[in-house]
């Protein structure tokens, strides 16, 4: 074939000389598109894992433990246990998805396959990479939450259509973990930090953030710990909107805390990404 | 240092410096690259070649001095400059889980090329890189040479005006290197400006119109390969090996032969314009080396002369 000639280019951005700059959405979109191609290769594995573990919780806690609680105590504050616990599992699942998406893969692009470095050699910048990647995680959170909610609904996990609002709440909860986790991951050298995080942060959070029982059942000194973590706020908001028992002042406060985690996380993530990638 | 002037300068640096903490990895270097030129940085491990290339690629901030590409300052116009560069980093940054062509498509999108443009462009570049029959294969199992060619193909997706190559052929077998050199020649002939680093002398001599020799973050010499050899070496070199622990012992016996003698642990290098004649003189003095070999001087000799060290151990 014509392997002897060097191909020349057509198109605006491929002519020698000053090139037309990329728009914001083109830059974010390019990063998003890459992660979409990666996802096309890996979705089977991730969707099964993502789907099975909350399903196990649903069956064991919601259905199994639920019948016991409902028989003995008549549910939690009059709400059947399944409908009490399902909106909380929705938020908790978002935390796990966030954890799964913001650790190994991100460190991989920093350190192992250097995908971020490849991007930085092009017109893309650190903020484009961050936003493109974070948007793709919004996508993961939405898909994972929607699937789980669909299944939980079949089991009778929701009592009204208001429960649909648990979806955006769960996505926000997931992002309240994801964005600070990006900042954390960009400071890691290996996976030690992740193991500590899984074992000593995420698991206790799931157990003590009001997912399976109201935090008022905890010793008084432990309750402030729950207040300080995004999960409790996510669980409470999700439960409020799903059960229709909305106290607006509280809901606004919970959502505000989640937004604050995203905003502060963003500032930290930009800083640690820049420090790590631009040397 | 010979200065390069004119309107056709695409890349220039004055007092360019890179520090990591207190350590000066690049220590105030000056150079300029003309349009269409193949310009090389030659130096041993740790000389500061990659640090320089990363600054030129606008991915590493300049610590001191001035750097201009296309007349623009990387500190303020990084994205606009990078849109016009092709970068082959020292370590491949391919996504090995994806296919060969996916790697090209994705990268083209980073430059804002349309999907259609990226596809037709990728097909042409795969042809150029002789990877067409591997287009749909995953990258991971490909040979080192193929991966390197893919990285080069990828770096050309935006039709760059300057191509930066950091050790393009390190770690490849001789045949793979020759294939790569051939591709780089073609690029050069088509008018692409090449800036490359290497610690291979033959590579520098093959590819570079002009080069600088770097050591410890500084430029120690500059010129065309021929000029450097003429200036810092002789036309030919007589290599003598003896049956000895230490070749220093034999250095005295050959003094006066040739213009200069360099003592290495395993051989003596006699610098002379006529190697055969020097060999004859050695013989006539009754010195009996295990082997004697006359060769053309190379940049290796230049480097040895300038720094007192060999370039690759
Ligand atoms: N990010 C960094 N932080 C600290 N020191 C660094 C960093 N990058 C490079 N260095 C140091 O700067 C010096 C020059 O490194 P550089 O990679 O530029 O050399 P090089 O000429 O490319 O070498 P090689 O032939 O091994 O690729 C080395 O001593 C290296 O350890
Ligand atoms: Mg290097």
From TrEMBL, chain A:
Intracellular or extracellular location(s): Cell membrane; Membrane
Family: Belongs to the ABC-2 integral membrane protein family.
GO cellular component: ATP-binding cassette (ABC) transporter complex
Record has Endoplasmic reticulum as a keyword: no
Protein name, as recorded: Transport permease protein
GO molecular function: ABC-type transporter activity
UniProt xrefs under InterPro entries: ABC2_TM, ABC2_TM_bact-type, ABC_2_transport, Nod_factor_ABC_transporter
GO biological process: one example: response to antibiotic
Annotated organism of origin: Pedococcus cremeus
Lineage start: Bacteria, Bacillati, Actinomycetota, Actinomycetes, Micrococcales
Domain ABC transmembrane type-2 stretches: 45-276
Ranges annotated as spanning the membrane: 51-69, 129-155, 161-184, 196-215, 248-270
Automatic annotation (TrEMBL), chain B:
Keyword Ligase: no
Primary location class: membrane
GO cellular component: plasma membrane
Highest rank taxon of the organism: Bacteria
Gene Ontology MF term list: ATP binding; ATP hydrolysis activity
Protein's cellular compartments: Cell membrane
Coiled-coil segments: none
Pfam families with a match to the protein in the record: ABC_tran
UniProt keywords, alphabetically: Antibiotic resistance, ATP-binding, Cell membrane, Membrane, Nucleotide-binding, Translocase, Transport
InterPro entries registered for this protein in UniProt: AAA+_ATPase, ABC_transporter-like_ATP-bd, ABC_transporter-like_CS, ABC_transporter_ATP-binding, P-loop_NTPase
Residue ranges annotated for the ABC transporter domain, each copy included: 11-241
Membrane topology recorded in Swiss-Prot or TrEMBL: Peripheral membrane protein
GO biological process: response to antibiotic
Keyword Translocase on entry: yes
Similarity comment text for this entry: Belongs to the ABC transporter superfamily.
Name of the protein this chain belongs to: Lipooligosaccharide transport system ATP-binding protein
Source organism (scientific name): Pedococcus cremeus
């Amino acid at each position: 074939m014509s392997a002897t000639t060097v191909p020349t280019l057509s198109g605006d951005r491929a002519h020698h000389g000053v090139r037309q700059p990329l728009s914001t959405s083109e830059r974010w979109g390019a990063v998003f598109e890459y992660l979409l191609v990666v996802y096309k290769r890996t979705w089977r594995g991730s969707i099964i894992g993502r789907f099975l573990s909350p399903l196990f919780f649903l069956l064991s806690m919601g259905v199994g433990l639920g019948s016991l609680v409902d028989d003995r105590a008549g549910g939690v504050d009059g709400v059947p246990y399944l409908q009490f616990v399902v909106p909380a599992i929705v938020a908790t699942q978002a935390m796990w998805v966030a954890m799964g998406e913001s650790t190994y893969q991100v460190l991989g692009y920093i350190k192992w396959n250097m995908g971020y470095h490849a991007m930085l050699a092009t017109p893309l910048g650190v903020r484009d990479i961050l936003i493109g990647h974070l948007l793709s995680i919004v996508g993961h959170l939405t898909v994972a939450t929607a699937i789980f909610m669909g299944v939980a609904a079949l089991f009778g996990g929701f009592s009204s259509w208001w429960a649909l609002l648990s979806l955006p709440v769960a996505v926000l909860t997931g992002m309240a973990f994801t964005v600070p986790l990006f900042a954390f991951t960009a400071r890691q050298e290996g996976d030690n930090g992740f193991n500590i995080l899984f074992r000593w942060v995420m698991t206790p959070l799931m157990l003590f953030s009001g997912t399976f029982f109201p935090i008022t059942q905890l010793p008084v000194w432990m309750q402030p710990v729950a207040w300080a973590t995004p999960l409790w706020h996510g669980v409470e908001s999700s439960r409020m909107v799903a059960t229709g028992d909305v106290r607006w002042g509280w809901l606004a406060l919970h959502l505000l805390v989640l937004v604050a985690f995203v905003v502060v996380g963003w500032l930290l993530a930009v800083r640690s990404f820049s420090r790590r990638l631009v040397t | 240092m010979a200065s390069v002037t004119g309107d056709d300068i695409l890349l220039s640096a004055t007092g360019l410096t890179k520090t990591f903490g207190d350590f000066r990895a690049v220590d105030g270097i000056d150079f300029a690259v003309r349009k269409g030129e193949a310009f090389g940085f030659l130096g041993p491990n740790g000389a500061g070649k990659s640090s320089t290339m990363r600054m030129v690629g606008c991915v590493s901030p300049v610590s001191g001095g001035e750097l201009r590409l296309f007349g623009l300052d990387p500190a303020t116009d990084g994205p606009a400059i990078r849109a016009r560069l092709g970068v082959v980093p020292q370590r491949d940054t391919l996504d090995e889980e994806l296919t060969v062509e996916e790697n090209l498509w994705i990268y083209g999108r980073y430059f804002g090329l349309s999907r259609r443009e990226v596809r037709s462009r990728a097909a042409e570049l795969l042809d150029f890189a002789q990877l067409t029959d591997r287009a749909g294969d995953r990258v991971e199992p490909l040979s080192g040479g193929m991966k390197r060619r893919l990285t080069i193909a990828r770096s050309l997706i935006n039709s760059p005006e300057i191509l930066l190559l950091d050790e393009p052929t390190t770690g490849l077998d001789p045949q793979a290197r020759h294939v790569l050199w051939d591709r780089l020649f073609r690029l050069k002939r088509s008018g692409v400006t090449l800036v490359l680093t290497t610690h291979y002398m033959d590579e520098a001599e093959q590819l570079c119109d002009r080069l600088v020799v770097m050591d410890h973050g500084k430029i120690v010499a500059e010129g065309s390969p021929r000029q450097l050899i003429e200036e810092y070496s002789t036309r030919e070199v007589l290599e003598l090996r003896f049956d000895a622990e230490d070749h220093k012992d034999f250095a005295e016996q050959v003094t006066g032969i040739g213009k200069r003698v360099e003592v290495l642990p395993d051989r003596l290098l006699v610098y002379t314009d006529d190697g055969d004649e020097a060999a004859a003189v050695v013989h006539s003095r009754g010195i009996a080396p295990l082997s004697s070999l006359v060769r053309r001087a190379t940049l290796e000799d230049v480097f040895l002369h300038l720094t007192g060290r060999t370039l690759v151990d």
